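Quarterly update from the structural biology core.
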Amino acid sequence: MSDFDAIDSLLAAVGPQAALPAPERRRELREYARLSKAQVARALGVSPSTVAGWEKDRDPADETRTKYAYLLDGLAAKLVAETAPETAPGPEAAPTDEPPAPPAGEAPALTDAPSPGPAGPVESGDDVETLTTPEPCVLCGHPARHQVEGFAQHLDPADCRTAATTATPPANPATTPVRPAAPETGKPPARPSGRSQGPARHAFQEPAGPADLIRESVQGALAEHHGDVDAATAALLKRAIPDAMRLLDETRKGARYDIVAHPWIPDVLRKQTSRGPDQIWEARPKWTRHELPPGRHEVTALDINGAYLSALKTHLPLGQLEHSTGLTHDRRRAGVHLITPPAWEHEAILPNPVGNRDEPGPLWVTEPTLRLLLRLSGPRYGLCAPPEVHESYTSGATENLLEKFRIALKDARDTAIERDDEVTLEYVKAMYSKFVSTMGESNYNRELYRPDWMHIIRSQAFANLWLKALKAHDEGLTVVRAMGTDELHVIGDWRRVFPEGRGVTEVKVKDTYTAGTAGEGEE
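Predicted structure, tokenized:
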């Protein structure tokens, strides 16, 4: 083959790229259809952060661009179809069975304005074929006798919508038809992922809100399992992680900041071995008082409700962490810090804020631990010296990044408690606890890789428990034990200090027991 033959072959392989609407329009179409970035990412084989980039200032390329353009074209067509007035087509508007084929090399263009695409009325330039055997429509899933550009679908949007509204929807969302791969890829239709997305929702309807997503998921699971509470609960717990990500995406719509799902991570946040931990110290409390006051005492073990749920309100870094040394703490930023903690001289009555350490010296802590130490070293408490900060990895931060997500879960939890709905209660608990535990290096959640957030949220839960111990001490209670995120043992009238109940601002009794030594004259 000559050089010119090779060049001619290369030129022949180069075709026009699929047209894409403006990034703002791409996001509008996705949100009108009530699709999350995670759902689009799974369909196209990319990460949610890549989809976020396409909706901001980047474009896909090659085969991925073709698939993305096809998706957007279909969403634009459905938008036109579902917002068009319900008018009966006249004889002149009736689609023909065999319209003329498009000129060779031409493809329907996708513009910023909504235009009829594969889901809309078939134009004369569309490649339409009549099927001898009906196949599932790629838009509504019901039998269609035509295919456009190689995809089976109804020619008239009214037929597609009628089929979707009159037919009985499948009980299991995972069994709904899957859009096949683009014809030019030569690949077989995509297989269902097996990860349930909850009850099927209609596109381009008024959003119901995050709380309705939780209610719809519970109702769908109960219906699918014919009211079997145990089976429905088990099914909901299995899909708690993807459902939590779907809820997160819903609560982030219209938010000021885009969540970077997979930013660069410093080595201190990476595991040293496949089974070992990273270098971050979360300051988990594991403390028991050495001596009790003389006499026998009734000790109450209090259970702190929704510890991880409350800890979602914490200062989280928004973007990629940046390294710094020798700087004073900036409250507008958050991350992880290498510090030398101060000496703690109150071990007899209160736990050390950095937890139980086996070795002295510098250690990497998270934002909540550093802020707690700075607070305790301030003039209000004066319990210790300020920590010495050696270096940090931080980014601009906000305390309200997950606030809407937290409130949606809290409201659902409160409603479930009020209605004695244990299915929803267990489902919500699994959503927020698994969300926190799998956002690090986990094979169960590959949509969000933020080990810094995971450590920060956990540390916030530990700091919250420590502050409750401090409050109990300041109010005259004797603190006996502080463990993990939710266990606080005290002596004294705790009800005048903490409200009792099942709400996230309340505590409940886990156990009561007697401890101490018998005084003189006692057996």
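The longest helix spans residues 451-474.
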